[in-house]
Structure formats: structure tokens, C-alpha cells
Amino acid sequence: MRSLNTSKNRNMVSSEVVMDIKRDTAVGDHADSVFWRWFGMSRTSLVAKLRSLADDLESSNSIDVGALPTVAINSWAVVQRPVPCLIGRTLGHPSIGDGRPALSSELFYLDSERGIARTMSRWYRLGTHVDPDYWNKRGARRS
Description:
The chain is 37% helix and 23% strand. By secondary structure, it is of the alpha+beta class.
């Protein structure tokens, strides 16, 4: 395999990246296409989600658990994909049917004593906790 660690190759790669960025930002209303490609949402939406997450994390010690939405996750465990996340069976999720297995978005806050977790997308009420092996064994049975 050829090394790209020469200044000529670095300049070539940099020029290609710059051209991609220029092309992406030259499309007027589609200037957020880099954000769509990487995050699946516009820059404005990503900033709003991150701001909401930051606000929630900042006030997590004073959250009234009873006032949280009723999205719940049962048979949950903390597992890892490239980032920590929850795996479990959701209840009350806006797009996943009740009782269906699901992986959450990135996990940013977990308080198992209070029974709550905050992912990139939403708060969860934590139901029954299981060992991550519970899900590993279930996956192995399907193969």
C-alpha cells in the first residue's frame, strides 16, 4: 500500500477536501449538505439538539423524574457501538413499536438509581436492567 505521508499527497488530499466543501457550500439553500451527510440533519437542527442536550445535562441533578416524557426502555443494558448507547425494548417511543428491541442514539447521561438516561435524542425512564450478555445471547440465537 502506498503511503500518503508526503507533502505533495497531503496537498492533493487537502485540495480535494476543499473542493468538496466549496461544492457543498455553493448550493445556496443546501449549504448544510455537509451536516446532512455526516449527521443526517441540518446544521441548525444539530445545534438545537446539542443545545438541548447540554441544557439537560447541566440541569440533570435537579430534574423532576415525574415530569419527564413517558418514553421507557425495559430489559436495558449499556453497550457500545462506536459510542456508548442503550439497548433494550422501548415503550412509548415515537417511531419504534412498544416492546421492540432497539439501540438508542449516543448515551450522555445515566442515573440508574433515579431510573433515567439521556441520549442524543431523548430522555428515557429505565425499566428492568439486564446484563449486556442477555442481548449477546439473544443475538447469537438468531444466527
